[in-house]
Amino acid sequence: MKRTIWRSISVLTLCALLVLTGCTGFLKPAENNDNEQILAELNAMKQQLEATKSEIETIKNSEKQDNTATSVTPTVTPEPVTVEVEVPVDSVFGIDCTVNGGDSVKLDGQTQVHAVANRKDGYEFDHWEFGTETDYESGPDAMFFFSEATVLVAVYHVHKVVTFKNCHMNFMNSNGKAGGKDLTEFDFEEDYVNPETKENCKGGEIDFFVTADVPQGREVDYWLINGVKYQAPNNASKFRVRGQTQATVYEVVLRKKGRTPLG
Questions:
Q1: Fewest C-beta in 10 Å: which of 29, 55, 116, 224?
Q2: Strand order in 150-158's β-sheet?
Q3: In the structure, how many helices (H) and strands (E) does the chain have?
Q4: Average pLDDT for residues 7-24, to the nearest whole number?
Q5: DSSP, res 211
Q6: Per-residue pLDDT reduced to its tens digit, 119-132
Q7: Residue 29's pLDDT band (boundaries 50, 70, 90)?
Q8: Whole-angstrom distance, CA of residue 191 vs CA of residue 199
Q9: How far lies 154's CA from each of 38, 57, 139, 146, 160, in Å?
Q10: Of 245, 240, 238, 169, nearest to 201 (Cα)?
Q11: What is the DSSP track for 37-100?
């Protein structure tokens, strides 16, 4: 493109020289025909000169457009914006319990927290859990110290009672056999006394015998223990339980004597 411009400028210069030369010659005396010819040539040169100027302007404008099209606008990176986020104060949150009389306690360094487990019908407090820790030693009314955000959970178990349907329980006597009164329910959540041996027993655990109440013409088909079916070997109507630690319902299902056991 630059070569074309320079070529056009050279032509324009040449034309200008020719015009000047022609003008110089025009000042010399000449014949009328010669003067007319010179004037015609000058007019032709002027037209060519105007055309060359126009071509040069067109080339210059074209270069400006090309430069504009290829120019790159610098990218301005905005300054980073700082957003303030409110960070909650560290607290101890209680689940199924109160902490210092409420649902949560805001921490102020090492903070003392008084936790009390909620009462739940049919359930008893079992232990505390917080983070990865488990605490079986502290009771339902306990005192803790926390210095960082913690969720304190009171854990429960079903109230420890054994219940019997179409059967009964007996405590073990001093001879290691079933004795005493037939019972259809016994609460062993708290410490108790074996009525046959007069032994003090710790709450939460119990030993006993289970005996089916089988009327004449009937026999044991199977047992249900907390709703789960167990097929008794040889249609056993009596068995011993040791170390019972959970609330449990024992039920015997009977059939007519001599019938095939249910599958």
A1: 29
A2: 104-106, 91-95, 150-158, 123-130, 133-135
A3: 2, 19
A4: 45
A5: E
A6: 999 999 999 999 89
A7: very low
A8: 11
A9: 120, 91, 10, 16, 18
A10: 245
A11: HHHHHHHHHHHHHHHHHHHHHHHHHHHHHHHHHH--PPP-PPPPPP---PPPPPEEEEESEEET
Whether residue 5 contacts residue 60, with contact meaning beta carbons closer than 8 Å, is answered with yes
Q: CB of 199 within 8 A of CB of 224?
A: no
Pairing of strands 123-130, 97-99: unpaired
Cα distance between residue 22 and residue 34, in whole Å: 12
CB 26 within 8 A of CB 38: yes
Q: Which amino acid makes up residue 114? A: H
> String of b and e for 123-132 (b: at least 16 CB within 10 Å)?
bbbebbebee
Q: What are phi and psi for residue 261, nearest 5 degrees?
A: -60, 145
pLDDT digits (tens, 9 = 90+) for 55-71: 666 655 665 554 444 44
Sort residue 217 into left (φ over 0), alpha (ψ -120 to 50) or beta: left
Please say if the pLDDT value at position 31 is more than 90.
Answer: no
